Fold this sequence. Notes:
alpha+beta; CATH 2.40.50.140
Amino acid sequence: MAPEPSRGDSGARLRLPAREPSxxxxxxxxxxxxxxxxxxxxxxxxxxxxxxxxxxxxxxxIGGISLVVLDVVIDFVWAGLNAGASDDPTLxxxxxxxxxxxxxxxxxxxxxxxxxxxxxxVWMAQxxxxxxxxxxxxxxxxxxxxxxxxxxxxxxxxxP
Length: 160
């Protein structure tokens, strides 16, 4: 995709398309795929050369290890550049997105344990006793268990 001129003062500025991988990114990807295939055999031949007294064994071994280290550095830099922060902080965090939402009791919560339904998913729940059909509010998440409490408008938990 060719850059399109921006509608600015002189029209001389160019606006590049957003979020397309640059040539540098593709170059680093290609290099990162090739470096281990060159570096590891080079280091192994260097070790073999050092053990057999070859004059350039050390340089091959150091060169191979350097290529592998360079590959690791490229991978960490790449991961840092591509790890953008999500605009949804609860993304991939299970029930964290349910905190503050209302859920319906699916199976009675007795002695502090039961199940609730949030949308089309049934979750284990702990909290005050409630009967099926009661509406509760998710207060927190502990692993895969929702901690539920009474809705905001009521003062306490219903007891069966």
